[in-house]
Every structure is written in structure tokens, then in C-alpha cells.
Design a protein that fits this description.
11 strands; single chain; Jelly Rolls; alpha+beta; 16 helices; six-stranded antiparallel β-sheet; 3 domains; globular; about 50% helix
Length: about 425
């Protein structure tokens, strides 16, 4: 007997198939058709996340999986195979997609959870190798998506975006065609700040290079760092700039806990004659910052803390971030909510400072730009005045340190922009 979830996806898939056939299987019409039919079927309100998971786990009716190696999502579940298109449910817990485009068209709908959806534009400059282009990457829009929200997926530079999933787990329904490009070409591109478009799976798509990096990882895991640095530097020099960048991206992951060694490796490679070392360093640093926030987000399940990670992961104008915060917070007091979220992050991840107890109240005052009198009053609402007086000298020092933290400064700018956010 067919499960409710499989039956729902089959009915939507058959309707998409019939209407797309009537349009002559035109790729140009597919995204709009998917948006309309997803809205008509309203899968997100008729199905729960658990019903989809139970169907995948217990139903025994899964079609051929479009992504059997789990290259994107954790996991991706193909619920309907229409031949010329598939309907997937992409589940997310800890992973955070990088900024990317697509080689397919279609649409997605939020099934479970909330996500911060950020769009970008890439103004290409000089192409230094196939699928390795310098340019300028800019944020164009950021929005908070909730259950039922639907967006088109367009191919190429028509949609450059990322979704940072707030809830754990989160899930999106994705209707998509197969990639336009088959064979050795990349199905999509990775975009890195300040402005680089590249093949994010350069190493993975080249078996000898992938195995070479696997061998190098033996040295990094055994902390034979000088030998690792010597060998990975020699490997990076063997190829063109796109080859060197791909090798360094993998090396950065291997040396995550040994940043000094990675910095030395970059210095070793600095005499490159093509003059791209500063750009490579900037792109790698940007990706490292993305990875750092992704690790922080993956380390916590607190939804507010994960939301803070989401709005800080891809910096945008303070008023845009403030609008997202207002939408997310609803009727809650924003200052205390953000301070508590930072406290959760500080106790669970790698912020470099710790916020708890009286410090959390002090941070609330810092974010709200309150003076000393207001800060003392806030503390006295929870602690007796004698304890506040005794703790005050230490708190003053802590507050000065907090004001210097980049995370606190960024959140303070967002809070100050709240009156302008509409």
C-alpha cells in the first residue's frame, strides 16, 4: 500500500509531467510551472517532515535516487522520478551550503523549519582558467523563508544564492531538471568573496588529485605538519592557478586546527608569477570564515543561536539584517534574545569569549547602547544590589572586552538599525 507521502508526491509529479509535456518540455517554462503547481498542491501544509522521513525509512518505495552519493544535503531523498525531472526532499542538520549557482531549473518550497535565503550577483572580470573567473560578488537580497514559501530555481548566473537553515532539522522540497552539463564539466559553480567564481568540486572530479589529497591527509592527521606543508606546496606548484586554489582549499580543511602551518604554506607559495596570491588568500580567508560560522552553527541546536549564525555568515547592510531580525523575533524583545543566543554560542563553540549569568545581561545593555545606570538597573532586576556592586569592577572590564568583539559590534550595528528596518 502506497504511503500518504509517496502518493502526494506522485500526484504532484504526474501533474507537472502532464503540463510540461503540453508545453513541449520547454526548459524556459519549467521553473514558472513548478512554482505554480507547488503552490496549488501545497505539499508543505499537507505533509509533515516526519511523514516524509517515515516513508523513506519504512515505505520501501523509494525510486532511483538522483544523488546516491549524498553530494548535496544530508540526506537528499528523491521522492518522485519523472525521467526529465525529479522531486527531492533535501534535509539539513549541520551542513551549510556555500554560495553557488545551479546547472538545472525548477523550484523549491520550504517543508520544515526556517531558512535565511541570500541572493548575490557576480560581475565577472578576468577569466584566468576554465571555471575560474575573477570579479565582484555582491549581496542583492536577503530574506527569511518559512514553511510553505516557494522560490524559482534558475540556472547559471540567473540565481546565485545560499540558504542557511535555521532549524535542525530543516527540509526543502526541490523540483528540478537534470543538470544542463553532463560529463566532466562542473554542474554548478562556487562563489567566494570578495569575487571569485570557481569549480567547487575541482578535486573531487579528478580521481588522481583526489587520491593525492587523501594521501596528504595522512600527514596532517598525524601532525607531521612540516612534511605535509612541503608536499602540498610541491603539489600546488604543479598546476595552473585553478589547480593551486583547489589544492589549497582542501589543505585548509586538513589544517583547520593548524592555521599557522597553513599561513606558512601560503607564504611558501607567495612568489607565484601570476600575481594572484593576494586574491587567493582573500578567497581562502573568506571561505575559512564561512567554515568557522558553519562549525559554530552545527555545534548547537538552539534555534536562536543558529539564527544569529545565519545573519552573520553572509554580511549584508545592517538595515537588511535588522529587517530579518524583526521578522524572526516577532513580539520578543530583540536585545535579550540576541544576548542569550550569543551566550549559547559562546559556551558551545569557538567565539573566543564566554557569556553567561551577569555577563549576558551586560551584553544586552551593550547591544541596546544603554548607559551605566541602565545597565546597573537591568542587573539589579535579577541580582541583589550588593552583589551587583561587588561584581561591577569585573563587569566593567568584561564589558570593555565585549565592545571590542567583532560579533558584538556586528550585532550592535544591526540593533541600531532596527528603527530604520521596514
Amino acid at each position: 500500500m502506497e504511503s500518504v507521502a509517496f502518493d502526494a508526491f506522485r500526484r504532484v509529479g504526474e501533474r507537472i509531467d502532464a503540463e510540461w509535456r503540453a508545453k513541449g518540455r520547454s526548459r524556459a517554462s519549467f521553473a514558472e510551472l513548478c512554482v505554480r503547481l507547488l503552490a496549488d498542491s501545497d505539499l508543505a501544509s499537507s505533509l509533515s517532515f516526519e511523514s516524509v522521513m517515515d516513508a523513506a525509512i519504512l515505505g520501501g518505495q523509494l525510486p532511483k535516487q538522483a544523488d546516491p552519493l549524498k553530494e548535496f544535503a544530508e540526506p537528499p531523498i528523491t521522492m518522485f522520478d519523472g525521467g526529465d525531472f525529479v522531486i527531492d526532499v533535501n534535509c539539513w542538520v549541520g551542513d551549510t551550503p556555500s554560495i553557488h549557482n545551479h546547472g538545472f531549473v525548477g523550484a523549491f518550497q520550504v517543508l520544515h523549519g526556517q531558512s535565511v535565503h541570500t541572493r548575490f550577483e557576480f560581475l565577472p572580470g578576468e577569466q584566468r582558467a576554465p571555471y575560474f573567473t575573477l570579479g565582484d560578488l555582491r549581496v542583492t537580497n536577503s530574506e527569511l523563508l518559512r514553511v510553505g514559501d516557494i522560490r524559482e530555481v534558475l540556472d547559471g548566473d540567473r540565481l546565485i544564492h545560499t540558504l542557511v537553515h535555521v532549524d535542525a532539522p530543516s527540509a526543502t522540497i526541490v523540483v528540478r531538471t537534470p543538470p544542463r552539463h553532463r560529463g566532466p564539466e562542473p554542474k554548478s559553480l562556487l562563489f567566494l568573496r570578495p569575487g571569485l567564481a570557481c569549480d567547487g568540486r575541482f578535486v573531487d572530479r579528478r580521481e588522481p588529485l583526489r587520491r593525492a589529497m587523501d594521501c596528504l591527509e595522512v600527514y596532517s592527521r598525524c601532525e607531521r605538519l612540516d612534511e605535509y606543508r612541503k608536499r602540498v606546496g610541491a603539489l600546488a606548484r604543479q598546476g595552473t592557478v585553478d589547480f593551486a586554489h583547489a589544492v589549497l582549499r582542501k589543505a585548509q580543511v586538513h589544517l583547520w586546527k593548524h592555521w599557522n602551518t597553513f599561513s606558512q604554506l601560503l607564504n611558501d607559495l607567495s612568489p607565484r608569477s601570476d600575481g594572484l596570491t593576494p586574491l587567493l588568500e582573500a578567497a581562502l580567508q573568506s571561505e575559512r570564515e564561512h567554515i568557522r560560522w558553519a562549525i559554530r552553527r552545527a555545534a548547537v541546536l538552539d534555534v536562536d543561536a543558529r539564527f544569529v549564525c545565519a545573519i552573520l555568515m553572509h554580511p549584508t547592510e545592517a538595515t537588511v539584517a535588522a529587517r530579518l531580525v524583526k521578522q524572526y523575533a516577532g513580539s520578543r524583545d530583540i536585545g535579550p534574545m540576541l544576548a542569550k543566543a550569543v551566550g549559547v554560542l559562546s559556551r558551545s563553540t569557538y567565539l573566543g569569549f564566554r557569556v553567561e549569568g551577569p555577563t549576558e545581561l551586560a551584553l544586552t545593555s551593550v547591544l541596546l547602547n544603554e548607559d551605566e545606570t541602565a545597565m546597573r538597573r537591568r542587573l539589579c532586576e535579577r541580582y541583589i544590589e550588593a552583589d551587583v556592586t561587588r561584581l561591577w569592577p569585573k563587569l566593567e572590564s568584561v564589558v570593555q572586552e565585549l565592545r571590542r568583539e567583532v560579533v558584538v559590534r556586528d550585532l550592535k550595528n544591526i540593533v541600531h538599525a532596527l528603527p530604520r528596518a521596514t
